[in-house]
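TA notes. Do not distribute before section.
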Amino acid sequence: MILYSLKLLTLLLRATTKNSGTALPGLLLEKYFPNTLKKLLAQFDDVILITGTNGKTTTTQMVCHLLKAQNVDFVTNTSGSNLIRGIASSVLDKTKNGKVQAKLGIFEVEEATMPLLSKLVRPRLIVVTNIFRDQLDAYGEIDKTLRYIREAIESSNNPILILNGDDPRVQNLSNYSNGEINFVKLDPKLLEQIKFEDSNVDIKSNITINTKVWNIKNISIDDMSMEDFNSFSDIFKIDILEVIKIENCVNQRESFGGTSKNNVLMQITNGKEFLKNYK
């Protein structure tokens, strides 16, 4: 009955607002029915979590696109709401008669949410894109942000890690899982254009790391060609260039307050109405 009521609420919100990605049903599920949420998440056979300061949305979009091309069923939070409430709403949306309609979950996750989510699911694979200081307003300090991700890895069952092998702080996360460790690195010449936070790399000597160097010619994703993508893997096809367009990634963020065109226009309208009434 709980799930039927929340799904009905989702339909009503979509019918009465322009915001198709509302996280309200997920918020209610998270706050008032946590056991129900845990049971839904437990239905996944595999879960992939994608986190980091930058690149979460683009990375998630590319992974989902590749899996769709292989006809793999999955649940993901395409709305861009990367808190537990947004993930819960996405799962709820793909639930029928109490059953989640896929066995694979692929979720973009905000860093501070990682340890909370890892208590509800046991991810098979965790992807960490990078750790930069432009999230300081949200989390206080860069080490605290890193600690959130480390706690999630430690509380999981030795997940496979795919890490940014050029970011020293992210490299050190390899110490916290006994699962398969993978570094993705760029040609050193390109790294002159990226300023990672200085930090000592201190990786345990008994850890085996698989390293893949991506020999791309352009570091800007807008300038990347099919040759760049295929230098990493031939699984990429020409339509990946549409997926990674910044406007397409941004327009996926339909959660309330998100950066999609519809949301921005709605916020402008609401702001104008507020100023009008304020006068």
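Switch to the second chain here.
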Amino acid sequence: MSHLVLMVLSALGAQAPANGAVLCLAESSAPGIVLVGMTDKWLVVDGAKGSILLENRQVEGPVTAIAVDKKRGLIAMAMGKPASNNVIDILEIDAKGMAGKKIKRISGLGEQAYALAFQPGPDALLASAGYGREISIWDTSSGKETLKIRDHSDSVRGLDWHPSGRWLASCSCDRTVKIWDMPSGRCAHSIGDATDWVYSARWIEGGAKIAAGGVDRSLRAWELNADKASLKSSAFAHQAAVLSLGATSEHLLTLGEDGWLKKWKIPGFLASGKLSVPS
């Protein structure tokens, strides 16, 4: 759930770190444990107690994206400064959900990565994307890039794999959500209904629909078939940009730049609750 994780923890009394800006978050494999990427370090936080369990300052620059593969026990962290040799470190997760030994470094990203996503399924693949507008697929076992997709015309802000592992969704500041057929990398759908930057996209209803939100403050969901994407639900979600989406089996959660965390009933996007997020 990325940003949603920290906001929920803050609402429950967990304290955000005093120094440095929080750039990304991800839930670890152990209940209540959250990984936090910052401008100068990364942290492991106990969400239930609101305490910092581990602080690591051995980074190559800001930690801009984190992804967790709970099945394989892996963490991916992207780090680096703009227009520099950004890297992705692959680390093991120990039994307590802590980040452990680094087992692989993927280098040569060129630009900062804003999104990482592990593919579900048997292949140890990781998708990355960011300021450079490209989407890269990496074999985490070898560290080699197996596919590069160049289609977005602006930075890519979010990635989400379909539960089947066949489809990859991306969203971008070019105002589109794109669906990629894997492993070929063919663009199966390019959805341009948004009127401004799109920050986050999530598969919902078990992968039956793709939902997205961003700067135009709206929440939309599309049903996909072979030849078109049909808009099925939409709602004016927040008074400012929709920063992040998180999905459960029955609800979609949205975090807005207006400081509200909202819960929406699936399907139909009927608002069913909201929580003010402490600043």
